[in-house]
Every structure is written in C-alpha cells, then in structure tokens.
Amino acid sequence: STYLQDDIGDLRQGYEYSRTANPTRASLESVIADLEHGKHGFAFGSGMAAISAVIMLLDKGDHLILNSDVYGGTYRALTKVFTRFGVEVDFVDTTHIENVEKYIKPETKMLYIETPSNPLLRVT
Fold this sequence. Notes:
By secondary structure, the chain is α/β, with parallel strands linked by helices. It has helices at 23-35, 47-55, 72-81, 97-103, and strands at residues 63-67, 88-92, 108-112.
C-alpha cells in the first residue's frame, strides 16, 4: 500500500505497517510486561527471532556464557553466525554455579540460560 504523508519526515501517528507495530502485538507486550512486573515487553514471531535479538546486544570482543545443552538452533546460530562477528562463546554446565564462576572474565557481558534445557530438560 501507499501511505499519504503530509510532508517528508512528518509521519502520521498510529499503526501503518504491521511488522513494525500493530495494536494486537502492543497489547500482548503490555500485558506480558505487567504480568512479569516488567517495564517493557517484546513479542517475536519465533523463539530464534527472540534469541537473535538478545544476542545482537553484544559487541565484537564480548564474551557470552551459555548452558551446555542449549537448543540446537541456538547452538548453531552461536557457533556458525555470531562467532563470525567476534562474539566469544563458552558452553558450560550451568547446573552448578561453580562451573559458571570459572568462566567469568572481564569481557563477559551475558549469561544466557535456557531452563529447562532442550533437549535434556535440565533445570538451572
């Protein structure tokens, strides 16, 4: 569709393109944030979209610790894609906090845990 705007840079308020914003998703995000006592909520079209958005918060040279038995798609994305962008990744048995502590270093910016894990259903 084509949208009529009053002037370049003077965009109308509201919802014009459902992938960038829509009232149904905005309501879902607001309700989830309220239920979880959060400030904001974010809804994604898939789990991998959510995971990718979180991992994209990291910069080149940052270090990430994950549980050793993450979902296969998460594992492949991290070892085949994100490491190419200079993110260092360690997969650790996170069922014991001592294991995690051994891998923390100054460059560690994120601890990512899927619990219960997939496929082994370990609880961290």
